[in-house]
Amino acid sequence: MLGMLGGGQLGRMFTLAAHSMGYRVTVLDPDPLSPAGAVADVHLKAAYQDREALQQLADSCVAVTTEFENVPADSLRWLSSHCTVRPAGDAVAVAQDRIREKAFFRSCNLGVAPYAVIECDSDAAKAPANLFPGILKRARFGYDGKGQVRVANAEEARKAFKDLGNESCVLEQRIALKCEISAVVARGADGIGRSFPVSENRHRNGILDISIVPARVAPELAKKAEEWALRTADKLNYCGVLAVEFFVTESGELLVNEMAPRPHNSGHYTIDACMTSQYEQQVRTLCGLPLGDTKLMSPVVMVNLLGDAWQQGTPSWDRVLNLPEAKLHLYGKHEARDGRKMGHYTVLDHSVEAALQKALITRAALYPDWKD
Ligand code: ATP
Ligand code: MG
């Protein structure tokens, strides 16, 4: 029995991978309708700090992992004195806080966008001019672009700081991007790490929209991104699956954006297009098994299915399924809301251009209101 803290789609795909390898899974998530809870062998419907539920996890599971970065690090730390916990609470805690995360990347000698820590109104008032236009980001509990405000000057930064609740923030220079890429890596307890092929990611309204693999960047740049992600995992003495997001600047420079201590939306493509998926890799690292091969078997494009596509009710899935090159994944969420990740599909073809073209035609039919 394996334990999973969090019942979202990442936990669901982990559970499916664990099942195919013969494991059973207990999911802890307060939501009675959680996507992972629906497929788990046992679903503990309790808060992530609930001592009784944590005790039950510890008693019934040989190893516990997580699928979202805002899991209380203290719950992971507590569990680790009872069973194997991967990744460790201390590593997750670094990824949970942009201030710690950025300082950590710098200590690894990785390039980051120019930034300043904003803890109070006067930090915002005194922010260096080179950070504008910038983005003020809350240090904790941000996702899908939430908790972020674009600011043109110090006055706007002060207002945004107040609007974000006077909580610790980082102010980042807004980078002129050529593109964004990410590398998902897995590292075992033996220190051996392996990267999945780098993905090129396009966002819409701060939410991942499309991932393209192989990324259309210079091979040296992709290699550097893999190397940086593996170095991050090494320096954290990380065990598990770790995703690292990067900016590629207009001049072709690589900068680290952030990391996620878990499988990643931009790694969904691995299910259909790689020898081993990021979820199987998570099972392997959790159970102390050798890492699987991460080879890409076909060019692939992944498209997120957001609640926006449900405006006229459930979309007609023939739009995806009529495409012989496409694979559809739905997360079993009961309520569609704009911006909510409901599923995804991948298109595999002989080239990324061919896959992208087909993926975009399908996407246009699913989101008739979207203008690119
Ligand atoms: P997620 O958890 O979905 O990855 P997040 O809320 O943690 O998102 P970020 O990754 O920091 O947020 O930002 C979301 C997106 O906003 C980025 O992928 C990028 O497209 C854009 N963005 C963020 N910071 C910058 C920046 N400094 N310069 C230019 N674009 C940025
Ligand atoms: Mg991000």
Can you put this structure into words, describing what you see?
It is built from 12 helices and 18 strands. It has 372 residues and is of the alpha+beta class. The protein has 3 domains: 84 residues, Rossmann fold; 60 residues, Dna Ligase, domain 1; 190 residues, ATP-grasp fold, B domain (D-amino Acid Aminotransferase, Chain A, domain 1, 2-Layer Sandwich). The strands form 3 sheets. Strands 10, 11, 12, 13, 14, 15, 16, 17 and 18 form a 9-stranded antiparallel sheet that branches. It has a 5-stranded parallel sheet with strand order 3-2-1-4-5, sandwiched between helices. Strands 6-9-7-8 form a 4-stranded antiparallel sheet. Strand 4, helix 3 and strand 5 form a beta-alpha-beta unit. The longest helix is centred in the middle third of the chain and has 17 residues. The radius of gyration is 20 Å and the shape is globular. The termini are far apart. Magnesium ion binds next to strand 15.
